[in-house]
Please model this.
Amino acid sequence: MTNRVTIIGKLVDAPKVRSFEQKGGTIEIVSLWLEVKDENRTDRFTVEINDPKAAATAKAMRKDVIAEVSGKLRHDRWKDKGTGRWTGKVFIAIDPGEGTLRSKGIAAETAQSEAA
Model:
């Protein structure tokens, strides 16, 4: 079974970098929040990047960049310590060698306001 998703959207905010300790070193995860619009609705997606090449690309991006993301759709689940309830999220994951991230330039409305 193939699990693959590709979206193109605008970065809502600058990339976020988180580090986690692991045996033998540190893991760095870069997160993006993409907004995808059509004529009827706006959706926002979280992208979590664990691939060094894609992470370097993500770190160079800024708010309002149009990005094309290819990766795997994932579901993460955990128990909330405060309430004891299970909660979760669906996100797009870019793992080493299994996804891509490309910049498509600055959003048109942002480029126009910067030129003015």
Notes: The chain has a mean pLDDT of 90.
